[in-house]
TrEMBL record:
InterPro entries: HTH_MarR-typ, MarR/SlyA-like, WH-like_DNA-bd_sf, WH_DNA-bd_sf. This is MarR family transcriptional regulator. Signal peptide: none annotated. Pfam families: MarR_2. Transmembrane segments: none annotated. It comes from Undibacterium hunanense. PROSITE patterns: HTH_MARR_2. Residues 16-150 form the HTH marR-type domain. Coiled coil: none annotated.
Length: 156
């Protein structure tokens, strides 16, 4: 069953009002498609588990504390996620040689395979999102979105 977006709160009276609403709607569509792929995929993995695998794929040998700093998530929630991924053989842990309290985490071969599948799915969604645009239009869209981000990052 295909879900439709609720447009009640999406004002399109002028371009200025509608830009962030549209970006918000696009992100919801993208996330919905990601979640659907995770639910229907062979890996039985949640969105947050995918985020954790992605972090340790980019930061091999990082610690749970590194992940907490990066994500801003509750340490207890992250500890449960990490334990589950370790129990399933997707993350490997190694105690720090100088401080045994620190545990470095890295993807196992199975974890890397799942992360690779998640990246392929993301590429398919990204391609679908920009289909019909040539490379110049895609570059222009990126530049516009970066300008929006920079405008919001700027202090008043």
């Amino acid at each position: 069953m295909r879900k439709t977006n609720d447009n009640v709160n999406h004002s399109r009276q002028n371009n200025e009002d509608g830009v962030l609403d549209l970006i918000h709607t696009v992100m919801h569509q993208y996330r919905s498609m990601q979640y659907q792929a995770l639910r229907d995929g062979p890996h039985d993995i949640t969105h947050m588990e995918g985020k954790v695998l992605s972090f340790f794929g980019r930061q091999p040998r990082a610690t749970q504390s590194d992940l907490a700093k990066h994500s801003g998530r509750d340490k207890a929630q992250l500890a449960r996620l990490i334990k589950g991924l370790r129990d399933r053989g997707l993350l490997d842990a190694e105690a720090d040689a100088t401080d045994r309290r620190n545990v470095h985490l890295a993807l196992t071969a199975d974890g890397q395979a799942i992360l690779s599948g998640l990246h392929q799915q993301a590429k398919r969604l990204n391609s679908k999102a920009v289909s019909g645009m040539d490379s110049a239009e895609q570059q222009q869209l990126l530049q516009f979105l970066l300008r929006v981000k920079n405008n919001l990052d700027a202090t008043e």
